[in-house]
Amino acid sequence: MSTWIDIAALDDIAPRGARVVKTALGCVAIFRTGDDKVFALDDACPHKKGPLSEGIVHGTSVTCPLHNWVISLETGQAQGADEGAVNTYEIKVENGRILLDGTRLRARSAA
Amino acid sequence: MTQRLVIIGAGMASGRLLEELDTSAFDITLFGAEPRGNYNRILLSPVLAGEQEFDDIITHDAAWYACRKITTRFGETVVKIDRQKKLVVTSQGVTPYDKLVIATGSASFLVPVQGNDLLGVVGFRDLDDVEAMLAAARKPGAKAVVIGGGLLGLEAAAALHKQGMDVTVLHLMDHLMERQLDPAAGYLLQKELEGRGIKIVCKAHTAAILGKDHVEAVLLEAGDLFPADLVVMAAGIRPETRLATEAGIRVERGIWVDDTMRTSADDIYALGECVEHDAVVYGLVAPLFDMARVLARTLHGEAAAFVAPTVSTKLKVTGVDLFSVGDFSDGEGCEEIVFRDPARGIYKRLILRDNKIMGVVMYGDTADSGWFFDKLKSGEDISDIRETLIFGPAFQGGELMDPLALVASMPDSAEICGCNGVCKGTIVQAIRDGATDLQAVKSATKASASCGSCSGLVEQVLAAILGDEFKSPAPAGICACTDHSHQDIRRIIRSQQLKSIPAVMQEMGWKTSCGCHVCRPALNYYLLCEWPLDYADDAQSRFVNERNHANIQKDGTYSVVPRMWGGITTPQELRAIADAAEKFNVPTIHVTGGQRIDLLGVQREDLPAIWADLNGAGLVSGHAYSKGLRTVKTCVGSDHCRFGTQDSTGLGIKLEKILWGSWTPHKVKLAVSGCPRNCAEATCKDLGVICVESGYQVSVAGAAGMELKQTEPLASVETEDEVIELAVAFIQLYRESADYLDRPYKWVAKVGLDWVISRVVDDRESRAALVERFEISQSVYRKDPWAEQARPEYRPRKWAALADLTLEAAE
Ligand code: SRM
Ligand SMILES: Cc1cc2nc3c(=O)[nH]c(=O)nc-3n(C[C@H](O)[C@H](O)[C@H](O)COP(=O)(O)OP(=O)(O)OC[C@H]3O[C@@H](n4cnc5c(N)ncnc54)[C@H](O)[C@@H]3O)c2cc1C
Ligand code: SF4
Ligand code: FES
Fold first, then answer.
1. What is the pLDDT of residues B501-539, one digit of tens each?
2. Does B3-106+239-299 match B110-235 in CATH topology?
3. Does domain B629-783 have CATH number 3.30.413.10?
4. What pLDDT is attached to residue B476?
5. Minimum-distance ligand to the CA of B592?
6. Which tens digit of pLDDT belongs to each residue from B465-491?
7. What SS3 class is residue B335?
8. Alpha helices in B210-313 (DSSP H)
9. B677: number of Cβ within 10 Å
10. Cβ neighbours of residue B315 under 8 Å, at least 6 residues apart?
């Protein structure tokens, strides 16, 4: 069952930008793409935990600011020759508000 | 039941064997003494030099073995082969085989002298050796002695030197690489390496390695003593044959094999550097790859025979072009053709017998090596072209050929990739079958997949076959999003008056929706440089440091560097810095190489507050993070110094106040020294000023980072105002015409210093116009970004978290 948490307005994030949501288990990065899709991923690159929220967002990918790994916002998978993945979370926009699914976050904190 | 195939050694030969085999036909177990799978050993040299990472050179990863159901036992050394029971023994137990392959390669040969077992003595064979060398190189001022001036030793020496070590090569013979080079080429090579700062001693007989527990020095028989923190043994390799010898298998210099790679024992095969075929032991990969092909067929019960190939040698040291093949000793009936161009350091020598090429040695220019190698292998009679032979293919047939025509004229049998024995015909076929770029050709044919030195040729074949359809990756598009070059983009932004990133992408046909981390920062720069008053900077197209006005650290914290104009500070400023450091728990304070103070390890959310505090004391951003003006270093000059001729400090501060805040294609650093003693190190900066009695010498295009280059004179002038005008005009010309991420020295190398002088010095109108355009831009950008970003209204949106769910999630 999903439990949607209203976290902010879509406009609180710049297009092709990101900001973080603090959780008990570390930050989750919320991305907004150029065409207003939103994605939620752990804010720690699979390579060396670089803050993905500070990367450059392009298409539905983000380039990690530390060593330029490119991570898919859709799957959390590293692209190209690099290997690794970060957790992704269910997220949606309704009436200009960003809603994040709390179930997975809770499941993670319980685990 | 599927046959159990056991392979001992996970090296380059067995890796290739696995690729050639139909792995589903066997139940395969792969043992490797190294705690890792197969990788491209050849490229350990670039890894040691810091040019590549180990991850880049892995050829087979865990997924590869898993999907072929190969059992891997890495980190497990086979200690015995039991031929009677048909099993191999390791410390973990026994593993039975139906068929066994020995691919144990070779080991570094340790020169048998006292002390060769001390700590700090390493071979150059595997990743562990590389890591040991890199660890030694980390110690400041560490000294390395490389024993052996052959291929391996010189690659190690060049790489260690690049890593900052003080390197000496001790070579037993009269000249370097005597097995591949004649004395003349060996001399040129020695001169080149010595020019880089590597010491080379030939005819050096090592007597002993000295030290208590760890190596301290190497002693020569002649008595010379070379202090050392690291000794690299690169005097040769020894085929790893111990297992075979103990198992009673026939071993000569290597494990004896027949043409089908069978050893003298039933169901036991061998390949790689550990074998001897027809009295020859090999030490380069090309023949080993042929062996892999043959052995795969043998194991499948098909007929195949190994034929010894002719192998050529190249040295993988960046900036050294060297090629050798065949026999180049002055034998009976041999003739030679020699070409020398001492000024350019070029030497070419062909050895002929009966009008056929027997050997080739080339140094300095190896562009034609493939053509000569081809003639050597085909045994072509060269009497008709003998007159011009040494000048290479370009001069055959009267006309100068361009490189494309040249590859086009190569026969299909011409070998392009020496390591993998791939001929032009195979590459052409792969291209016709749909491979349209280097990567695709590499995966289809293996061409350029090993040492990589033929990738240029492969691209030329692509261009020759595909014509305009092939875009050579390097000079063409600035990234995968576009086929346009930096200069094209700049020109079109200007001529079409494009004023936004989407407009550029639309008009120039970008292939992606919103670019990538390579093109967007470049476009953002080009636009703000061209249209300072109209274009709105796009924060999302900036690299994190420029977006956050601080340098990101490996742990996600930031560093904060306030500006200290010309390296001058005051007690108040120092107090404010000390207070801020205490208040924000700054873990490290470092005095930078740019004459100012770096507060490292600041939390992201503290940035606006620490800036506000620093602003309070009059300190502004030092832009230590930007592609923009960094520092203007100065010395104390005529104010204090007994040698100072002018007020170097004052001039430096003036320059910094005019230039700060400007964005540039890459960072820009200046320095002003008060006299030719040059205490501010002005002659390795992007722009440097040396004060002299009669005025000021302005020089430009120095480098002291990844490359080292002295500045070149721009002009000598009499007044401070003229210096400032020249500096501003130079920087504006650089801003307007360089490729993004080219430092000034790279840009000047492309456009030519003469052109720069003509625009900045000689043509007064042009100079004034440049200065004017710089001022227009600075009317927008000469301001402190910290002050703006620290404003309270700015803070929540940019610097705070979007939401805090710490409580929520914990419930
Ligand atoms: C802080 C400082 C080291 C120090 O503690 O002394 C430093 C720190 C960094 N340098 Fe530097 N450089 C520092 C002086 C230098 C100098 C010496 C100088 O300025 O006189 C050089 C050689 C001169 C030159 O610029 O070429 C230097 C050549 C580089 C280079 C190589 C540039 C090149 O073109 O070859 C890089 C890489 C780059 O910029 O792409 C680099 C990159 C970096 C980065 C920004 C790496 C990065 O991208 O994260 C480092 C940031 C560390 C941090 O987290 O704060 N740093 N760096 C120095 C700051 C000076 C200042 O006050 O602003
Ligand atoms: C730094 C360097 C640069 C080079 N540059 C070039 C070049 O430019 N061009 C070129 O053609 N060649 C080059 N070579 C040579 C090339 O790497 C070798 O020819 C090739 O790797 C040999 O392949 P191999 O499989 O026979 O042996 P290896 O690749 O050495 O593999 C043998 C493996 O077997 C393992 N092994 C040994 N004994 C046991 C045991 N008892 N049990 C389990 N495992 C065991 C070893 O640990 C090793 O991993 C270079 C070599 C080095 C070291
Ligand atoms: S501060 Fe400069 S030299 Fe030191 S590690 Fe970072 S980039 Fe390298
Ligand atoms: S931490 Fe992300 S690329 Fe290295």
1. 988 888 787 888 888 999 999 999 999 999 999 999 999
2. yes
3. yes
4. 62
5. 1
6. 887 777 655 556 788 888 888 988 998
7. strand
8. 242-246, 285-299
9. 12
10. B151, B154, B155, B177, B189, B322
CB B18 within 8 A of CB B26: no
Residues in chain A: 111
Ligand 1 proximity of B706 Cβ (cutoff 6 Å): yes
To the question of pTM greater than 0.90 for the whole model, the response is no
pLDDT of residue B395: 67
Question: Secondary structure of chain A: what % helix, strand, coil (to 5)?
Answer: 15, 45, 45
3-state helix, strand, coil in chain B (%, to 5): 40, 20, 40
**Nearest C-alpha neighbor of B397 from the set B405, B408, B386, B385:** B385
Question: A48: nearest CA in chain B?
Answer: B554
Phi and psi, residue B13, nearest 5°: -70, -45
Query: How far from B670 is each of B52, B188, B458, B711, B801, CA to CA, in Å?
Result: 31, 36, 42, 11, 39
Q: How many helices (H) and strands (E) does chain B have?
A: 28, 39
Q: Name the nearest CA neighbour of B558 among B525, B588, B578.
A: B588
d(CA B421, CA B711): 45
At residue B398, the pLDDT reads: 46
Residues of A with Cβ-Cβ distance to B811 under 8 angstroms: 106
Q: How far apart are the first and last CA of chain B?
A: 57
CB contact under 8 Å between B517 and A49, yes or no, is no
Spell out the domain ranges in chain B: 3-106+239-299, 110-235, 486-542, 629-783
Mean pLDDT of B400-404: 53
Query: CA–CA separation, B193 vs B176, rounded Å?
Result: 11
* Helices B486-495 & B519-530 angle (0-180, nearest 10): 40
Query: Domain B3-106+239-299 belongs to what topology?
Result: FAD/NAD(P)-binding domain (3.50.50)
Q: How confident is the model at residue B402 (pLDDT cuts 50, 70, 90)?
A: low
Ligand with minimal distance to A78 CA: 4
Q: DSSP 3-state assignment of B70?
A: coil
Measured distance CA(B324)–CA(B178) in Å, rounded: 11
pLDDT in tens, B138-187: 998 999 999 999 989 999 999 999 999 999 999 998 889 888 888 778 88
Contact (CB, 8 A) for B790 and B615: yes
Helices B151-162 and B183-196, axial angle in degrees (round to 10) = 20
Tell me the pLDDT tens digit for each residue of B511-520. Answer: 888 889 999 9
Residue B264 burial by Cβ neighbours in a 10 Å radius (0-12, 13-18, 19+): middle
Range with the largest mean pLDDT of A53-62, B443-452, B464-473: A53-62
Name the CATH topology of B110-235.
FAD/NAD(P)-binding domain (3.50.50)
Q: Whose CA is nearest to atom 3 of ligand 1?
A: B592
| Helical H segments across B379-423, by residue range | 403-409
Domain ranges of chain A: 4-107
> Per the CB < 8 Å rule, is B810 touching A24?
yes
pLDDT recorded at residue B412: 84
Distance between CA atoms of B76 and B9, rounded to whole angstroms?
Answer: 10
Q: Which of B656, B667, B672, when mutated, tests ligand 1's pocket best, judged by the most ligand atoms within 8 Å of its CB?
A: B667
Domain A4-107 adopts which CATH fold? Answer: Rieske Iron-sulfur Protein (2.102.10)
Report the C-alpha gap between B640 and B648 in whole angstroms: 11
**Higher confidence at residue B720 or residue B379?**
B720
